[in-house]
Structure formats: structure tokens, C-alpha cells
Amino acid sequence: MPMAFEKKQEGTFEYLETGGTGEPLVLLHGLFGGLSNFGAQIEYFRSKYNVIIPTLPIMTLPLRKVSLAGLVDHLAAFIKHKGYPPIHLMGNSLGGHVGILYAMDHPENIATITLSGSSGLFESAMGNSLPPRKNYEFIKKKTESTFYDPAVSSKELVDEVFATVNDRNKGLRIIMTAKSAVRHNLAHKLDKIKAPTLLVWGNQDTITPPFVGEQFNELIADSELHFIDKCAHAPMMERPEEFNAIMGDWLERVRESSSQGVK
């Protein structure tokens, strides 16, 4: 994580922002993710965009509000609080799911959408119960399964997930959020998405397999699908150079076509 950018806290909003005059590019992390997932995107996009990474309050929402709807409400309040012009929204895994629901509610605030390993159609994650809480090896294997190359899964990352599932309060929130995501199937709603949408999927994603990317591509009218090989559920972390090049090129093309008035 680039040290030049400190986390900011404003009321209930925790976020990181690079600033500058560029259009806002909002990055949304997944269920076990956080601000550190996007270090390579900050470095790559900060010269052209104002890169913003809000913390999704999965662990801090009041229990009665722990759900996808609660996270979407938080994101909507954050974007309203900041007063951004239409945003470029990118979400990985659960972050993609939150982003799509936000885009459906606030189409006027969306310039583009990028989804990577997004939940919302099908996901095979931790299942509906907590993993064996004291079993470090099990958590290590589960965390490694997010990546094609297990080496990408650092000890820090595994320790973080292990600590989360061993905290009863956090573990409960993880299950409630995951169940809410499974209930919120988007198949019959994706035709509402009118914004240009980029889909970037890992060929070896076992959590939201490649066919999920293909389904999103079929169901979202203005969408373009790219696969990255030797890559699983978190392309922006595992293959950052390829991911950034695909997304950067696509954003430029969308910008050019919209400035020429071409749909």
C-alpha cells in the first residue's frame, strides 16, 4: 500500500483518496478484503483519476443492518457526502455486487462499471457456516483458494482472515453478509444496467467461475468480457499489470466514444 495516502475518517466513513482533478474512480473490496487489496491500482490510476477506496462497514454496521442493502446504503451516503460527479465504479467479489445494486438505485451517478469475480449470480464461497474456527490450516487453504498461485496469499492475509473468523462478532457478520449476498440474486435485474460495463475474470476462479463472467456478459447489454489466465478470484491483486492494462485501455475507449457522441 503506498504510504503517501492515509486512511481518512469522516463520521462513519473510512476511506482512502488520492485527490487531484481526475474523474472519481471508486474501488470496492470484497467480503474479506480491504483497502490494501488495491495498492497496484492506486499507483497505476492516480495520475489520471481521483482514486477512492471506501471501507465497506461489514464488521461495524449495527447487527440489524448487516446485509447487502446496509452496505449499499452506506456507499450511497458516502458518495452523497462527498458530492462526486458521476463515478467510475470498480468492484471485486462482494464489492461488485454492492456496486451493481448501487448502480441500479443511482444510475445518474454512474459513468462506468467494472466487475471482477463479482458475486450476484453464483458464488461458491465459505458455505453457509463458519469454517472450523481454530483450524489455521483450513483457513490458510481457503484463503489460498482465492488465488491461482497460493504464494500470493501472504501470511499477513491468512492471519487477518483467521483473526476475523475467530472473532465471534465478526464471524457472525461474515455469515450474515454472505447469506444476504446469496439471497440477492441479480439474474432478473441486470437488464437495468445501462452504463458501459467491463468484466474481468480469472480463468481459474473457483469462487465465481468463468461461466459467471459469461452470464454477466449476456445479461448486461453494454458489456465487454476479458479473461486473465493463471488467475483466480482477485485479478487486481494476482495479475495487477494485466488487470490495470485492460481496465485502463477500456476506460480510455469509453471516454473517446462518449466524447464523440457514439454509444
From TrEMBL:
Recall the GO molecular function terms of this protein's record.
monoacylglycerol lipase activity
Gene3D superfamilies reported for this sequence: alpha/beta hydrolase
**What's one GO BP annotation on this UniProt entry?**
acylglycerol catabolic process
Q: Which Pfam families match?
A: Abhydrolase_6 (PF12697)
Its Gene Ontology cellular component terms are: membrane
Q: Which residues form the AB hydrolase-1 domain?
A: 25-245
Any idea what this protein is called? Pimeloyl-ACP methyl ester carboxylesterase
- Entry superkingdom: Bacteria
Q: Which organism is it from?
A: Neolewinella agarilytica
Q: Where are the transmembrane segments?
A: none
